[in-house]
Amino acid sequence: MATSAPSKGSRNELAANLVASTVTGMIVITLTNPIDCLKCRWQVAGGSRPGHTLGGFVRTLVVQEGIWSGLWKVGLGPNILAMGCSVGLRNGFYPTIRDGMGRLRDSFSGAPLRSGEATEKVGPTGMFVSGLLAGMCGYFIASPLMQVKTQMQAEAGKLGPDGCYQSGARQGQPPSYRNSFQALSSLAASGAAEGGVLGALRILWRGASLIVGRGAVLSASQLAAYDGSKTSLRAQGVLSDGPVLHVTASLIAAVVCTTCAMPLDVVQTMYHSSHSLGGESYERYGQRGPIGCAATLLRESGPTIFFRGWVPAFGRLAPTTVMSFYIYEQLRHVVGIGYLD
To answer: Which domain holds residue 197?
Structure first.
């Protein structure tokens, strides 16, 4: 006997959307982790060498370390878990928050509700705020995993027989962590030794304001650009709801969210990597928190530093965004809640 689709706005619809979103995040980062790793390693090491181009950096990295060891597996474990949390919660809660804002708007305006639904969809501002709130939730939960992922990618290099790096930012030193779970326990233990439970939480969520801020801006710009352009193109009769519309709206969203998130992305990479690299890097970028890190970057390199890595970032976000929304829309269809409307 066929089961009926969950009713709009129900808990079953929310649960189905959360499942579709979480699986989407885990699949997409598994496929695109090499580009994410390249972006991080270029921001930390490659872009600081005069005359060193991105192309030359990639060739050297692949020759010395290989695609799998140098790019694909680095930080893959924590990245899968982080994206499962962040994408799962931000995409999972976004329609609920957006539609809730629509109902709230109608209740203040006195407009009649139709079966509990808003009279019309919220506009770009409502979409942006909905994405911002959903993104804050997802990226706050994922913050410890993203911290570990960034540190693993920033220090990556070719390992020698002695277990120490032969290349990369920590050349001559052993990896800081064996895996994501050991990394989390090590961070928690170091924090607990200084301040008990609160100290452990403080270390695990170190730089969380930066991660949450970047994630919220990325989510808000990406979801608002995707939802808004999809709604507009469909309303104008340019494209009907389907894969072609999903890809078109995704590409628009990729340009918008890459540009909006890059400054926070650069600061996040430099701040978190400084705690792993130590020495001069920590003194310059890690001692005074994320704001101090941003001020140092601006003073040393000027405002263009905040867009270093835009090309590899867009190279990651474009396929990531297209795959993410395409897979997400298909999974929504599979679990019986239809395309995002």
So the answer is: 11-334
Decide: 150 and 272 in contact? Cβ < 8 Å.
yes
Q: Would residue 215 count as lying in a domain?
A: yes
The token pair that represents 118 in the structure block: 């808003």
What confidence tens digit (pLDDT) does each residue in 313-333 have? 888 788 889 999 999 999 999
d(CA 55, CA 134): 36
Question: Distance (Å, rounded) from C-alpha 207 to C-alpha 289?
Answer: 8
In angstroms, rounded to a whole number, what is the distance separating the alpha carbons of residues 93 and 107?
21
In a domain, 339, yes or no: no
User: Rounded distance, CA 295 to CA 249, Å?
Assistant: 35
Give the residue from 150, 92, 120, 136 showing the smallest Cα distance to 328: 92
Q: pLDDT, tens digit, for every residue of 185-227?
A: 999 999 999 889 999 999 999 988 888 988 899 899 999 999 9
Q: What CATH number has the domain bearing residue 259?
A: 1.50.40.10
pTM to 2 decimals?
0.81
What digits encode the pLDDT tens for the residues 304-314? 889 888 888 88
Dist. CA 190–CA 210, nearest whole Å: 21
Judge whether 196 lies within some domain.
yes
Q: Which amino acid is at 87?
A: V
**Residues 119, 124, 128: CA angle, nearest 5 degrees:** 110
Longest dimension (CA), the chain: 72
The letter for the amino acid at 42 is W
State the Cα angle at 175 between 174 and 176, rounded to 5°. Answer: 115
Q: Is residue 4 part of a domain?
A: no
